[in-house]
Structure formats: C-alpha cells, structure tokens
Amino acid sequence: MNHWSDDILEFGELKRLLRRYVASPLGAAELEAVSPVTERFALEELLAQTGEAIEYLRASSHPQPASRGAAIRLRFDGLPEAAPITGKLRIEGTVLEAAEILALSGLLDRACDVRATLSACRARFPRLAAIASGIGDFSEALREVTGKILPDGTISDQASPLLRRLRHDVDRQQKHIQDSLERFLRSHRDEGVLQEEFVAIRNERFVVPVVAGKQRRVEGVIHGTSGSGHTLFIEPLETIQLNNELVRLREEEQRECHRVLRKLTAALRACSGEVAGAVRVLGELEWLFAKADFALDFDCVVPRFCPPAARRLTLERARHPLLADVLRRRKRPIVPVTLQLDEKARTLLISGPNTGGKTVALKTAGLLALMAQSALPVPCADAELPLFDQVLADIGDNQSIQESLSTFSAHIERVRDMAELPTRDSLVLLDELGRATDPEEGGALGVALLEHFRGAGAFTLASTHLLALKVYGANTEGVLNASMGFDEQTLQPTYQLRVGAPGKSAGLDIAERLGLPERLIQRARSAMTSSQREIAQFLSELDQRLQAATSLEQELRTRSEALEKRREELTGEWATRETAKLREIEARAAALMASFERQTQEVIGELYKSAQEKKDASRARQQAARARRQFGQQISAALRPDAAQAGAEVPRLEAGALVRVRNIREPARVRRLLGADLVEVEAGLVKLQVSVDDVVEVLEAKAHVRALPAGVRILGETRSEASLEEINVIGKRAEEACSEVDKFLDTAVMAGVIRVRIVHGHGMGILRKAIGELLAAHPHVERFQSAPANEGGTGATIAELRAV
Question: Which residues on adjacent β-strands are paired with residue 772?
C-alpha cells in the first residue's frame, strides 16, 4: 500500500498510543512491523483473529465455572528480549550464559502454558488455538534445564554431582584458610604489626591487613595496598598452599559450570527451530491481545471490507482515537462522526464553521481506513470500507520557510502530486480545498480537482468555506453536501456532521464570540454585499431547519424505540402468564389422563381374567377405547376452549377418508364402513377391521400415505385389528411358535402397528426363552419386555416395533 499520507494522518502517533497495551519486547516488535496492506484474505483472517481475541478477553473478564475450557486471562509481561538469545543459540559451538538459559527456559515454560490454555478453548476460540498450536513441545528440554539455574542466575549445586562435591570442597577449604588466618591474627595481636584484626580478599586470595613499614616482620606475599598507603595486604606464608588449593578447586568448579552450561545449551539447541517458532507465536499472540485490550478500552469494532463490486464507505459513530484519548484524560466527551458513501455518491463535501471539526472528520476517516488495513479494530459502532490501495491526503498548513514555500504553494505542490496518483481504489482527503488564494479562483480550482478525482472513481472527502464548491456540491450528481453543526444561540460549533446541506462558515459570529470588538464586527458585516448577506442568511436558515429536522428525527427514533421496548415487555409478560396458566392446566389434565389410564388397564385386566372368549375381551377393549377417546376430547376442549367454541367442521368418517388408527404409525385409508362400530381400513400394506372408537383422528385429504410403486399391489386376507396387536402361542412347540411369531411381526410392521403383545404362558419357560431370543435378533423389533401385571405379567411379552 502507498504510505504517502501516514505522517499527515498521524499513524505513527497511533502506534505510540498502542504501545501502552504491549507488555514485552516480543509484542513491541510485532507492533513496529504493523503497516497498512492490501491483501484482502490476509487482512480478513487477521481481523477474524482479532475479533476472537476481543471475545476471549470479554469472556475472561466475567466469572466462569472452573473447567478445562474456561477463558483464562493471559499475561505477557516479563517476557525477555529473545532475539539475541535465539540468534546466539543458532551459532554452533557457542554456550549460553546461565542468565540467558534461565530467561529462555522461562519463556518456553510460559509458551507451553499459553498453548495449553488456548488449546483447552479450541471449541470456542478455534483461531487462537490454531495459532497457539505453533508452539512446540518443550517438555524434554525443560526437564533438562529445570532446577539447574537458580533465580539469581547462578548454577545450582544440583546441576551435577561433581559440581556439588567441588563446591563442598571449596567451602571446606575456605574454612581451613579462615581458621589458619584467625590463628595468625591471634599470634600477632600484641606485636603492633596488624592494622586491624580481620581477614580480607585480594586477587581471589585470603590476606590480612599489615601496617605499612612493618611488613618485614611478617613472612608472606604482598597482594596490594590500601588507598591511603597506610595498609598492606599480605598473604601469610603458612596459608599460601591452602590458598593455592582453593584456587585449584575454584578453577575446577568453573570448568564444571562451563560443562553444565554447554550441556544445557545443547539441549536447547536441539530444538532451536521450535524455540524460534515459539518466540514468534508468543509475539503474535501478545500483539493480538494488545489489539483486543485497545478495542475494549476505546469501544472499538472489527471493521469489514465490502465486495469490490459493491463498494461503500460506512462509518457509524466514528471517533478519532488520538482525540478520544486526549478528551478522555480531560474528562470531556467526544462527538462521533457518521458518514456513508457508495458507488452512487463517492464524494462528500463538508462545509461549516471554523473550529467546527471539519479537519477532524477528514482525519478520522483517513486514519480509520489505515487502521482497518493494518488489521486494527476501529473506534466505531460499525465500520465497512473498501480495500483502498492508497490514502491521499492534503491536510494542514504545509508552509516551509526553508524551502521558500508559501501556504498556497505548498498546498498546490501536494495536490499536484496527488492528482497524478488516484485510482478507482483510492481514498482522497482534501482539507480547505481552494484555500490561501482568491475565493473565485480557489473555487474554480477546487471544482476542477473534485471533478478530476471523481472521474478517477476515487472516494473523496473535502472540506471548504468557498461558495462555488457548495454550489457545485448541490448541483452535481454523485456529490453530497454536508455541514458541521453550529449553535446560533451560543455561537459555538456542535461538532456534529449532518449530511444533506452545506453549512455557513460563521466566521464573523465566531470572531464575535472570541472577543473581537463590536465595531469591527459591524463594519465587516456592512462591507459584505447584499448577495453575500442573503446567501449567509439562507445558509443559516437552512442549517436551522436541518438541525430542527435532525432533532425531530432523533426524538421520533427515541419514542419509537421506547414504544417498541414497551411492546416487547408487555408481550413477554402476557406470554409468561399464558404459558404458566397453560402449563398448570396441562399438568392437571395429564394427571387425570394418567389416573383414567390406570383405571382402564385395571378394568381390562379383570375382564381378560374373567372373559371366556377372546371376542368378549376385544369388545371390552373397544368400549374402553371409546371411553378413553371421549375423555380425551373433553380434556382437549377444556385446554383449548377457543377451538371448541369456534365450531369448526369435523371431517366425516367415510369411505376414502384418511384416518389415524390407535397404535398404528402410518395414516390409513377407509375402505368401507361395516356398521355403526366397525370399519375396514387399509393400513400400509394390509387391510384391517378396527373399531370406530380406535380411529383417533380423521386427517385432511392431503395427509401423506405411503403408496406402492406403479403397477404393484398386495393381495392378502383382511384381519381384525386385535389380530395385529396380539398373538397367542400357548401350547405350541418352540419352533412352531417362533415361526408364527415371525410371520405375525412381518404383518404387524406392514400395517404400521407400533406395539404388539405375544402371549406364551408361564409353563417351563422354554417358549418364553425361545421367543425372547427371536425378538432380540429380529430386525423389526426396537425393544421388548415382559408384559405388565394387568396384561399377563411374565406370561406375555410386549414388543415395540421399528418404523419401516
């Protein structure tokens, strides 16, 4: 992307603002590399990752149940500058210092924690987890390093057995030397040769202080003199050998420390590639969460990029982040800017009072475009932008004394360069277009420039005080006039951008407010031509009408929102009351139905026990079904009184009607009526004779009935309804019974029967076991169990059939 206007739009200042949210050198390096780009796919993926990071921070700021998938706030402070260490690690043969190993192992340990935390949230935050998966497994290397380096950067005694023994020997040798020198001090205490009674160290050897001039009375080696020259530090002859041994032990200790460091360095070098990857991922994640922190702090949204074929620039309640930061510190509110441009209107011409916010509006649009193309969240309520290849801006006074450029010359030079660069995908920002010259010439020049940029297809935002440009905006298709608000009562700008009409400059009004003498103001007003005064008056009235219309629109919107909110509240309250009432009625009805069902089953059970013929039992079942249906209709009428009162016509039970039969899945078609209480139906692939009371519903004609393929029909005998729900195999051999049950199940499934009863009696249990094995392997059986007590108990088996 062309970075021609980054400085003018203060992109560098924005990066300094973002630096507050970065905690380590890793994130700072990522921030420094940020710049606007034009690769759509990469930008959209980065923005999606940023959106996930924002949601992660929101989730982590609220209480969550302690679980593996909880969003835990990640911290990146305290991470070291890893580039020098990883660079040194890549050079074969180099050995890291203990402090470097400690810093790098701490970084890798933190990296593993970050990976584990984000991996646990993969279902909620897949993009963050995918980034964290780039951190390798350093468990083996960390096991090698852990505990070997102390927090102060020294090598632990536990780093190796030899080092532990050598340090023990060093401590013991130091004690021997200390004891020897203390004996020396005691023996020479009264001779006047000692400056003081203490043991010192010079050149890594233990010495005693001796008065200068009396060194001949002490046999030993002089290792130094005090700053005043009054004291000599002498190593007594009797401790020289002890000191020599101490030096040897310390040299061995240093060699062992170097060997330990070389070993630890080798362990880290073995995964140097993964180490570099972990450092890169940590920096990337820290930068993502820094952007998320900024987004939450400045109430930002993730911007969207519109399709190339439907370009539009939409900024809703946009705020300049640098201005917002300043005003927030001063505890003052910021007035947001809302604007929208599209293919039909790509040019916005902003006029209005001085100090009214025109320049801020231009800078806000430009900086937010740069932020969006840097994959940064933007301080808006909503933001959708084209993918710009460059942002061209001429904002501010570019006067240069050193280069002998006047304000107008600098302005023209920059606009000249801009005029050579625009494309269809450019954003052009022109502040005070046509300024610093004669208004008539400046207006003509401004119109020519706007036409040039509009002809190139660029999105253009310009500010002006010139009448010619305001007229151009009013008379040119594809150009929108806009004004910054101005309060006529207080003579102060409102900083609100209103699209639809130009605004007056109000220069004299503002000068009056700022204290310019009244006589000068009056003289300036009288010097204006009548046409100028009329135009100013017209613009003032237009601005007042626009402000009144805007206020009325806002008031209507507020009232509409309040009414909608109240309507939703009333609807919710009514639905809650009705739902509670209906649930209470349904609960009572369910209890009544359950009680009725229990009583019915008990009566049917008694009838089965006492009935001499199956026909009597079947008749009892039909009577119970009729009573059950009537009771259910009464309950339904009670639950839905409105439906009962409506008196809707009930479909008639006649030949050809579609009906739903109790305990049969598929709708059946009535073939003929066999009297008042019996009807023949075709259910699935079989014909049935069922009681009218078992017809639970008459369906509409359009109800679906599964049909046979063309030219195919099934011929079979007509069965009564009871024979499809129950079979009795008492007294039959197991093989014969299983064969009959198998055929019975096929027929029942073809008829769409849901539940069947197989009566096999108690006996020795052989028949029951054989039928159980058959049902367990049968493809039509969903589940089976012994019948309840009122249906025969263990002497019968109830089977539920699968739908076909």
Answer: none
